[in-house]
Amino acid sequence: MRNLVKWMAALSCLAVASPALATNGMRMIGFGPVQNAMGGASVAAPLDAATALSNPAGLTALDRRADLSGTFFDPKVKYSATGGASGQSMSSDRGASYLPTAGFTWSGLVEGLSLGAGIAGVSGMGVDYGADLYGSSTMTSFSNLRIAPAASYKLRDGLSVGVAVNLMWAQMKYAVAGATGMLPRDVQDSFGYGATVGVQYTPVDLVTLGLAYETKSQFQDFSWTIPSHTIQTPGGPATVPGGREKLAFDQPQMVTFGAAVRPLPILLVAADVEWINWSATNGTNEPTFSTNPNLTGAQAWNMSWSDQWVFKLGAQVAATKDLKIRAGYNYGKSPLDPGRAFENIAFPAIAEHHVTLGLGYDFGSLSVNVAGMYVPEAKLSGGNASQGLPSYTTRMSQVAFDLGVAYRM
Hints:
The protein is mainly β. Helix content is 9%, strand content 56%. The strands form three sheets. It has a 14-stranded antiparallel barrel with strand order 1-3-4-5-6-7-8-14-15-17-18-19-20-21. Strands 10-13-16 form a three-stranded antiparallel β-sheet, with no helix packed on it. It has a two-stranded antiparallel sheet with strand order 11-12. The model is unreliable at 1-10, 12-17 and 180-185 (pLDDT under 50).
């Protein structure tokens, strides 16, 4: 167990060092190759130890196992605009991210009780434009790592409840509109906490239902010391004072309901419906400066995101005794407000359609799982004259590949 803790701590550092530009808003569609291959549908279909992150009640359906995987995540982001720096059109230099996911389950200590834990980068976003709309760089980055110790208890045959304690570590950095107080090396940390509670119920042998509620994640304020400096604005140079700046940036509550059906012994079909309460954390005038607002000279944050409904569908076919083929689809309408021109260029979380495929092969107690995700280009257009951007279009496409191993004890 001590070695496992050290192993997971090392993965924690790697996850935070590799921020992603996420897909359902700023949240990943799933965790690891099995969930991702199923389009993220997992609340009623516990297939690997990452269920500790999505619905801890599913732990009682799993044998003792450990899962380890890595994701290569490569978003392509660009924008075009009129106004600002004479209608620039640029592609982000952000590049790909490498994200680990790990988990384990343990049962047998107490009858009906299963323990587990999961670790993953659950959300992130950002861009890196060398010269932005106001004649200087735009660099944004947010990443959120979660470690979730979990427990599940089988109340009776077919009915389990579970809870996970979500321990989180987030990092943020940004430099926009010529704000010299925010340098790329000026990375700020924040620790947060929350919880996920879940229920899983199998009323008949062929059908399983799942329900998971994730609380709002409360984070410490991000904090920077900003020196007095001159910035370039649409109206010309301006001097802004220095001081301590704090930004409150929590993560939203969410509810997911799922169902899994086995119409044939070799076929599993799973579907989830998820509600994400973005408006409470990224809505009107959110996130907010809690002290000395706007010392960087950047515009006040007003992401104006709306709540998001996400639909996930996945299928697994046991082609042979050892080979499993998986496919999935995930859709979530972008929560962004087209009127927030600069925010949507700096944080373009506009991906909507996700198509996934994957395979799993068992070598005795060891399994190898792979998955791929393709997100066709999505675009969002609008304008905001008060920001000096009468019109803009931001675009994004994504590809991702997962490779993982699982060991059943």
